[in-house]
Amino acid sequence: MPCEFCQPATASSASLSKAPAQNASSDTVAGLEAEITSVESAMEMLVQRRTTLRRKINALSPTAQLPAEILTEIFRLVCQRTEDDARLITPLLFGGICKEWRDIAWSTPLLWNTICLHLSRTMHGSRVQLLREWLLRANTSPLYIKLTSDNEDDATFCSLHTIMDTLVARSTYWYSLDCLLPFQCHNLLRDHHFPMLTSVSVHPPKGTISTFSEPPNMFLSAPKLFDVDLSGYNFPAIVLPWGQLRRFKTQFLTVAECLKVLRRSPNLKECRLESVYSPEIIASPVSETLYSALEILDVSLIKGSAISLLDNVTLPALRELRVNYSGVGGLLMSAIRSLFLRSGCDLRRLCIEKHNFHTDDLIFCLKTIPSLTHLRLFSSGDVTHTSMGLTENMVSMLDPSRHASPLLPNLTSLEYRGRVFCGLPAILALAESRHCFVAEHAKGALALPGLCMLEITSTAQYDVPREAQETIARLRAAGMAISVCSITGDLS
């Protein structure tokens, strides 16, 4: 049996016997760590080298030779707003191309002055933070703001309130505003000034128009405001700097309220009034309103009595008239003719929509408006009588080869949609003769503008034979924009 004094020595010997193995394991780990560090360092060097090489390659491209001012202008054009806001290119795109482009984009405030946000329940916090950074990059450039949403509920209103609270801190730089504006956001706009604001298009939620019909009290703090769209608000509640307005749009006004708008706005150039009505028929003009500055009038008349609006105005500067009306034909044509003769205006564009007119009434009206260059006629399409719509007589009156003094000698564009009671040969003969039309003047031949665009859309089947298609192709090759089709399919 071993001595007790020998036991510690035995244990110590065992420990010493294991030490070399542990030291070997530590050396292996250290070696692996050193190798990993070396590999990572090499990879980092390769990445840096690749970046350097890429920059050298990019420096050889033609775009790299452009001055920063040219690149800035290109970026600005690319970022311009389009009709389809979903396809809008933002300056964030340039930040992912290269460092040089990112530096230019991040330091150009004009690239950040357009703010188009589609409000949703998701990503609310990230959008607010992005908006704050966006506004900082916009600096003091004028802000074009458009907020859209697919929903009108409490969650959307809450999101809009937060967004508007962020935007209103930069109210002194607002240039245009286009958005849904619930009553809950009105308080955010109080006690703010909008010295750069020129255009506003706001509307209340559709479900709350009858409850909250008063627009926000902000317009008198905008000394440059001239373009206003307040569709959806009650007219008596609208307070505007009427004297500085040049464009105005609203809806659901009576004839008397429309006349008030014209009287209050002596500098108005363009007025769009939707769904105009009159509680009673006005047999004759109560008071003739002289309004010399108006150049564009776009009205939608609900009932026949609303035609009295045209009977109560005199518009010597009128250049464009659009009327959407589904009532009795003779009344409208008579009112337009009377307005033109009374005003003595140089009317260039006339558009009549959703209106089933008698051809004789239309011809009688157009004879008094020889200055027209653009004519658009859209009927409702339920016409069955051959004296209505596009008839042989109408086409004949427009054709200079059939009349020495044709109807509308200055016509350059004709659009028609509705029933067609005229043969295709007569339409093509009109197109050919009008395309190279020369009118006889008292002192010799006077070349007048030819018909550049002819678009006929039949609401019933309308056949275009092969020989007619060849004529259409020839006219298109000569530079005329011509189309003859039906709603059942393009037959040209």
Keywords:
single chain; 13 helices; LRR_dom_sf; 14-stranded parallel β-sheet; two-stranded parallel sheet; alpha/beta; disordered N terminus
What does this structure look like?
It is a single chain. The chain is α/β, with parallel strands linked by helices. Among the domains are: 252-331 and 343-348, no CATH class; 356-492, no CATH class. It is 35% helix and 20% strand. The protein has 13 helices and 20 strands. It has helices at residues 6-59, 68-78, 92-95, 99-106, 124-138, 154-167, 255-264, 308-311, 329-343, 359-366, 392-398, 424-435, 466-477, and strands at residues 114-119, 143-149, 174-180, 199-203, 227-229, 247-251, 270-276, 289-290, 296-301, 313-314, 320-325, 349-353, 374-378, 390-391, 413-418, 420-421, 438-441, 444-447, 453-458, 481-486. The protein has a 14-stranded parallel beta sheet. A two-stranded parallel sheet has the order 8-10. The chain is extended, with a radius of gyration of 36 Å. The model is unreliable at 1-18 and 438-446 (pLDDT under 50).
Helix content: 25-40%
The share of residues in extended strands comes to 15-25%
Oligomer: single chain
Give the termini separation.
Answer: 118 Å
Q: In terms of per-residue confidence, which ranges show pLDDT below 50 for 5 or more consecutive residues?
A: 1-18, 438-446
Number of helical regions: 13
Q: What is the global morphology?
A: extended
Number of strands: 20
Structural class comes to: alpha/beta
Largest sheet composition:
14 strands, parallel
Mean pLDDT, nearest integer? 82
Tell me the strand order in the biggest sheet: 1-2-3-4-5-6-7-9-11-12-13-15-19-20
Query: What is the rounded Rg?
Result: 36 Å
